[in-house]
Amino acid sequence: MSVDRSKRKGDFWITGSQVFRLMKNVSESLAGQVGIVNLLGLSNAEIYGEPSEPFQTDAAYLMNRLSVRRQRDLNEIYGRIFKGSMPELHADKSMGWETYYRSYVDTYLQRDIRNLICNDFCQEVNLHKNHHKILFDCY
Fold first, then answer.
1. Which tens digit of pLDDT belongs to each residue from 63-107?
2. How many Å apart are CA 86 and CA 97, to the nearest integer?
3. Using CA atoms in the order 85, 90, 95, 98, what is the torsion angle rounded to 10 degrees?
4. 123 burial level (CB within 10 Å; 0-12, 13-18, 19+)
């Protein structure tokens, strides 16, 4: 395999959101050779084009932050909550969040959950087959 011959770190990047499929055999086949970075959705600072700073609990810092950030009304806050943090929704202003999330659920979650359930079910059936085979072999 090319990744084994090269020995140079960073030669191969596997990206995507197919966590279940990608990670299925990684623990065995690429143990110690892979770095995993879980990326979150966009932050408010990224969405609104504001400076990104680590959160602090200092009262003076928080009061100052309130004075330099634009206040948002309730409709804007709920709009932001419903739209979510997926980058594509903020890059393509014409894309509707309802259609996006419906498609997201249809393409990723339903398939991944179906695969997980089917795999667990098949393993359970095989376990029972083996158990019955052992019982019958003993008689």
1. 998 888 888 999 999 999 999 999 999 999 898 999 999 888 888
2. 9
3. 20
4. exposed
